[in-house]
Inverse folding.
């Protein structure tokens, strides 16, 4: 072993891995199949062997696979995935670093940290004095994860990482290696940064933007960031200066703004952040959030047409996407992101109408008014359908009511699975 290493100590503990996997059981964040594969790797000793090599400073991860994902606007997003054993080790490292680097994150950064998220971001925003009289500038970093330059990142890492020699060596070796798999071919990719889609990319990207966060935090400027998404508030003159300052500081870090997503909202004009729309103190779903959900529901309905029981299949898929049915109440879901912050159910009601229309289409195969008679509301409820509005108000009433709603959704999980 190279030196004493907090990460080696944690990764060498069987209890650590048991606890990590226990956090995503059932249909949780990782899914049953992946969890089973992870458990097999642990039981077979593969992870233990990797931890030994990691502690000795000789571990090398295999090249990640480069994939293209379709974005909602038709463009492609580049993500990377490691082999299962490598991925599991990186998830373990990320879990350790979440605690050891907690003090290295800025207060104005609300992404990828325990106890931080949209709720804390909006809590800080609502605490801004005279908020409704200020301009809002919404900014986004272009190709955030994959554009982060590796050498400046490694040079900027906090002492909690650089003092852990096995950790620093593995990060440097993995980030500097430009080899990636594209299909069956190994190629060189000089533009992969911290590799979007990999377990440690969020944490490393958070740390890299510390200088930007610190500058605004120290100046007590109303600035809030979640990953590459940020908002800053001020008078008309201040906003112009803040925007130029952010652009300059990002350029110093080798990053650039996404001009397509830069928006300035004068006082009284609605603005959107983290999938939500802020208007005169109230929060509703953002336009893009509604569009994404609409497209998701339509895809689920079309695919359900091929199943023996289309309504059951579509409702199951929908409930897992929206509420995480089959997992644990604490798992991250669409509802757990939005429900705590919404001030109105108006958009949820409109979405319920669309969802019911698409569920009826999944059964009937056509869009027709006759679908209301052929596929009744009671039929949808019988296979576990719960309207967003009902779930939202149950969430607002308290955990017991919301868990009762999820239990109602779960009734469809108890039925025999459809023929494949």
């Amino acid at each position: 072993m190279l030196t004493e290493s907090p990460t080696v100590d944690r990764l060498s503990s069987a209890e650590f891995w048991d606890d990590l996997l226990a956090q995503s059981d059932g249909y949780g964040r990782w899914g049953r199949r992946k969890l089973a594969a992870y458990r097999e790797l642990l039981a077979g000793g593969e992870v233990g062997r990797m931890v030994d090599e990691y502690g000795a400073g000789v571990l090398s991860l295999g090249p990640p696979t480069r994939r293209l994902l379709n974005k909602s606007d038709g463009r492609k997003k580049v993500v990377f995935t490691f082999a299962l054993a490598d991925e599991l080790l990186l998830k373990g490292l990320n879990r350790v670093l979440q605690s050891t680097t907690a003090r290295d994150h800025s207060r104005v950064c609300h992404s990828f940290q325990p106890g931080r998220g949209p709720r804390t971001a909006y809590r800080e925003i609502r605490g801004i004095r005279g908020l409704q009289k200020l301009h809002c500038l919404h900014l986004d970093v272009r190709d955030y994860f994959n554009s982060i330059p590796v050498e400046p990142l490694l040079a900027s890492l906090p002492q909690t990482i650089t003092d852990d020699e096995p950790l620093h060596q593995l990060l440097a070796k993995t980030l500097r290696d430009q080899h990636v798999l594209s299909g069956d071919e190994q190629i060189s990719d000089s533009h992969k940064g911290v590799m979007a889609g990999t377990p440690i990319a969020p944490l490393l990207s958070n740390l890299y933007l510390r200088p930007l966060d610190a500058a605004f935090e120290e100046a007590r400027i109303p600035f809030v960031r979640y990953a590459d998404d940020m908002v800053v508030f001020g008078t008309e003159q201040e906003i112009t200066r803040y925007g130029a300052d952010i652009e300059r500081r990002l350029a110093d870090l080798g990053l650039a703004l996404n001009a397509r997503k830069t928006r300035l909202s004068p006082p009284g004009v609605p603005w959107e952040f983290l999938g939500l729309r802020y208007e005169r103190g109230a929060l509703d779903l953002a336009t893009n959030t509604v569009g994404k959900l609409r497209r998701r529901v339509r895809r689920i309905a079309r695919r359900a047409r091929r199943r023996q029981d289309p309504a059951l299949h579509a409702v199951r898929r929908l409930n897992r996407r929206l509420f995480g049915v089959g997992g644990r109440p604490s798992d991250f879901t669409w509802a757990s992101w939005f429900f705590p912050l919404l001030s109105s159910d108006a958009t949820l009601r409109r979405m319920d109408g669309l969802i019911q229309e698409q569920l009826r289409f999944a059964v009937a195969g056509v869009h027709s008014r006759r679908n209301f008679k052929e596929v009744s509301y009671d039929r949808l409820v019988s296979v576990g359908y719960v309207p967003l509005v009902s779930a939202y108000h149950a969430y607002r009433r308290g955990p017991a009511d919301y868990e009762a709603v999820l239990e109602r959704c779960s009734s469809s999980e108890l039925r025999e699975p459809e023929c494949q």
About this structure: Residues 213 and 219 are 10 Å apart (CA to CA). Confidence is low (pLDDT under 50) at residues 414-420. The first helix runs from residue 6 to 11. The first strand starts at residue 65 and ends at 70.
